[in-house]
Design goal:
- The complex is a heterodimer of chains A (550) and B (233).
- With 550 residues, chain A is α+β, with helices and mostly antiparallel strands.
- Chain A has a domain of 183 residues: HORMA domain (Cell Cycle, Spindle Assembly Checkpoint Protein, Chain A, 2-Layer Sandwich), CATH 3.30.900.10.
- Chain A is 32% helix and 10% strand.
- Chain A has 15 helices and 8 strands.
- In chain A, strand 4 and strand 5 form a beta hairpin.
- Chain B has 233 residues and is of the alpha+beta class.
- Chain B has a single domain, classed as Cell Cycle, Spindle Assembly Checkpoint Protein, Chain A (2-Layer Sandwich), CATH 3.30.900.
- In chain B, the strands form 4 sheets. A 6-stranded mixed sheet of chain B has the order 1-2-9-8-11-12. In chain B, strands 3-10 form a two-stranded antiparallel sheet.
- In chain B, strand 8 and strand 9 form a beta hairpin.
- In chain B, helix 1 packs antiparallel against helix 2 and helix 1 runs parallel beside helix 3.
- The N and C termini of chain B lie far apart (39 Å).
- The chains are: A alpha+beta (550), B alpha+beta (233).
- At the A-B interface, helix 3, helix 4 and strand 4 of A face helix 1, strand 6, strand 7 and helix 3 of B.
Chain lengths: 550, 233
């Protein structure tokens, strides 16, 4: 009778191959999500340590984590090794992107030669893994990680859990290798549509991952591998859903042309002096995500599409500053566009601030405009003319104050930082950005400790804008979706839309301003007869000149 | 999508099926090179081993294959290739010629480039050696012209997505574990592998291309032998 069982040597070899294959698989996957290009050298002389004849480095922490997860076991039927890749924003929100599964099924290939064929096919499978890890969506995300988010991995052993990937996830098979004890299969299930993120994803607990793949952070997080069910604590925060939320959602998503006032706008929830409205924030999460992410995945570049955050609560009298860059600690400091945007920063002087506040428009909710302030005093004119400095309610300035600030991940966000992320929308930092703000650099302006309770409150830094420490006037600030026709936002950093916004309100021509203008106009008028006389004298010369041109 | 079909076996040898896979891509002119390199390198990644070192008693050890990431400039795409400058140069040369031929052909910008893996079968004099293909990859290329920057931008992304699909297709085929030449003895190794490179050892391959005119017939057939098999004799 033929001995169909594996010889003990073969069995030992096979176990070793599978073990090292599992370890190398983890290395390939994790290294492919580090955000860097990988390069290893070929070597014609074999070195003893290159398993499967492939030069795959071994990152010690990764090997350690993998060994810990495996705990001396090997993938077997019902016991799969999974590498979970997720994304974590600097705000603390995390989301699963991919699950790579190394599984074993019962289909055995008794005839196959272990030391030769299985080994070579495992090598081929690793090559396929190298190729496939570059074509799933998480690869491009991981190449861009750093400040706003990092990519984390987690290894677990046991049953595959795909529920964290949201609906509609896709699967790609990397390959299979038959062995006498079963068939090894390697596959990846990946989230395809971040917009479909369910509300379960707002994980606020500390990372459950072992090590963070982020070269900006050099200490590993404590590893605590038990899988946490993602639970969105909906009950705590949400209250009534404001019907107007949905309405303004629709408003936001419309594009507007660039001509004045009727450009709507939609305005956002109100200010600080209201009671905290976590409700609003929370319910806004999902729709915002929709906007932000569906764009994110289709193009790697983030283009500017302001998140829809409108809430016109019946309670709120009027629109408030949206992400207006107001510094609660320095009420008169208006944070405006950073230098990178090409717009001068706003001087933070109380005088300006006050003035700004006065000029600022209180646009009612239905208000259609935030056009440049119309006050007629010269002071106002000046204000308007300084609008490029981000004062006041000019549309230019409103728009300019909406931007994302890049900070190092996990940096304690200062309150004066105006970002979409501060609006407490998870992954809001994936919403398209516009301009970076140096003024918000925590290095430059040390962050103030957050003092507000309401996430909304905190994010809006409401107090400052109205300029009054009492915060009674409040205003406007409108967010509009600004998409110039025929312009694609994400080709260049300075695109048509940005250009238009920045130069939308140029300072008044001095000759047109009443005082100065009037004066020089009078002078001009006086000098006209003289000039005419001179020209008449030279008329023959002029005619001759014209002749030469013909 | 990949289509597999079998070529007729040669009459002189035991029946051997050559599997053939066809991939199609539509790209802009400046994307041709990178797209071709991405596909060819991905195939060759799977069809190259480390250098063999034969020892006594017919055993051999295998060198190590390194890999590296390549980012495309004109396509939102990245791929992995074998770390071998010689191999990269050989592929770039072939792809460069293909691209030039496409451009100069004056046709609608359609052509195809083929990567064929073959084995050599030595024949006795006066017969010359036979080349028996066992795997044939054909990439059909359609060059499109785009009108403006916005279209180009979309094309960058779309072609990137398409190439991701092609990579997945290639890996699927590789995973079928179908016919591969037997591992050769030392005397036969040059009939199976290209041993001319110093750091890796791909299976014997040749790259050829054709430019199609608008009627779909092949106007120029150019064969380029990258393996100097005549010199090896």
């Amino acid at each position: 009778a033929m001995d169909t069982d594996l010889s003990s040597q073969d069995r030992k070899d096979l176990d070793k191959f599978i073990k090292f294959f599992a370890l190398k698989t983890v290395q390939v996957i994790v290294q492919a999500r580090l955000g860097e290009k990988i390069c290893t050298r070929s070597s014609s002389s074999p070195t003893g340590s290159d398993w499967f004849n492939l030069a795959i480095k071994d990152i010690p922490e990764v090997t350690h984590e993998a060994k810990k997860a495996l705990a001396g076991q090997l993938p077997a039927v019902g016991r799969s090794m999974c590498v979970e890749i997720s994304l974590k924003t600097s705000e603390g929100d995390s989301m699963e992107l991919e699950i790579w599964c190394l599984e074993m099924n019962e289909k055995c290939d008794k005839e196959i030669k272990v030391s030769y064929t299985v080994y070579n096919r495992l090598s081929l499978l690793l090559k396929s893994l190298l190729a496939i890890t570059r074509v799933t969506p998480a690869y491009r995300l991981s190449r861009k990680q750093g400040h706003e988010y990092v990519i984390l991995y987690r290894i677990y052993f046991g049953e595959v859990q795909l529920s964290g990937l949201g609906e509609g996830f896709q699967t790609v098979r990397v390959g299979t290798v038959g062995t006498p004890v079963g068939t090894i299969t390697l596959s990846c299930a990946y989230r395809i549509n971040l917009a479909f993120m369910s509300t379960r994803q707002f994980e606020r607990t500390p990372p459950i991952m072992g090590i963070i793949i982020d070269h900006f952070v050099d200490r590993p997080y404590p590893s605590s591998s038990p899988m946490h069910p993602c639970n969105y604590r909906a009950g705590e925060d949400t209250g009534a859903v404001y019907p107007s939320v949905e309405d303004s959602q629709e408003v936001c998503t419309t594009s507007f042309s660039t001509s004045p006032p009727s450009q709507c706008v939609f305005t956002v929830t109100k200010a600080h002096f209201q009671t905290p409205l976590p409700v609003v924030t929370d319910t806004l999460k999902v729709p915002v995500m929709g906007l932000a992410f569906s764009h994110q995945l289709s193009s790697s570049r983030l283009s500017y599409q302001p998140a829809a955050l409108g809430v016109g609560s019946a309670d709120m009298g009027y629109p408030v500053l949206f992400a207006g860059g107001l510094n609660a600690a320095h009420p008169h400091q208006l944070i405006g566009p950073g230098k990178e945007g090409g717009v001068p920063p706003i001087p933070s002087q109380p005088a300006h601030g006050t003035q700004a506040d006065q000029e600022r428009m209180c646009t009612p909710l239905d208000g259609v405009h935030y056009s440049a302030a119309t006050p007629s005093s010269s002071e106002d004119t000046e204000t308007v003319s300084n609008s490029s400095e981000g004062k006041c309610g000019s549309p230019h300035d409103l728009l300019e104050t909406i931007f994302i600030r890049k900070v190092g991940a996990f940096v304690n966000k200062p309150i004066n930082q105006v970002t979409m992320a501060n609006l407490d929308i998870p992954f809001a930092m994936f919403a398209p950005k516009n301009v970076e703000l140096e003024d918000n650099d925590p290095m430059v302006n040390p962050p103030d400790s957050p003092e507000t309770e309401s996430p909304l409150q905190g994010s809006l830094h409401s107090e400052g804008s109205s300029g009054s420490s009492t915060g009674n006037t409040h205003d406007d600030f409108v967010m509009i979706d600004f998409k110039p026709a025929f312009s694609k936002d994400d080709i260049l950093p300075m695109d048509l839309g940005t250009f238009y916004r920045e130069f939308q309100n140029p300072p008044q021509l001095s000759s047109l301003s009443i005082d100065i203008g009037a004066q020089s106009m009078a002078e001009d008028l006086d000098s006209l007869p003289e000039k005419l006389a001179v020209h008449e004298k030279n008329v023959k010369e002029f005619d001759a000149f014209v002749e030469t041109l013909q | 999508p990949c289509r597999t079909r079998c070529c007729a076996p040669s009459a002189l040898t035991p029946a051997m099926n050559c599997r053939a896979e066809v991939l199609e891509v539509s790209v802009e002119g400046r994307q041709v090179e990178e797209a071709m390199l991405a596909v060819l390198h991905t195939v060759l990644l799977h069809r190259s081993t480390g250098k063999f070192h034969y020892k006594k008693e017919g055993t051999y050890s295998i060198g190590t294959v390194g890999t590296q990431d390549v980012d495309c400039d004109f396509i939102d795409f990245a791929y992995v290739r074998v770390s071998s400058e010689e191999l990269d140069r050989a592929l770039r040369k072939a792809v460069g010629e293909f691209k030039d031929a496409l451009r100069n052909s004056g046709s609608d910008g359609m052509g195809q480039i083929s990567l064929e893996f073959y084995q050599k079968k030595k024949s006795r004099w006066p017969f010359s050696d036979e080349c028996i293909p066992w795997e044939l990859w054909t990439i059909k290329v359609n060059v499109v012209n785009l009108a403006n920057e916005q279209e180009r931008q979309i094309c960058r992304e779309k072609v990137g997505e398409k190439l991701c699909e092609k990579i997945i297709n290639i890996v699927e085929v590789m995973n079928r574990h179908e016919y591969l030449p037997k591992m050769p003895t030392q005397s036969e190794v040059d009939n199976v592998f290209d041993t001319s490179l110093k750091d890796v050892q791909p299976y014997l391959y040749k790259i050829s291309y054709q430019i199609t005119d608008s009627l779909g017939t092949s106007v120029t057939t150019t064969m380029r032998r990258l393996i100097k098999d005549t010199l090896a004799l």
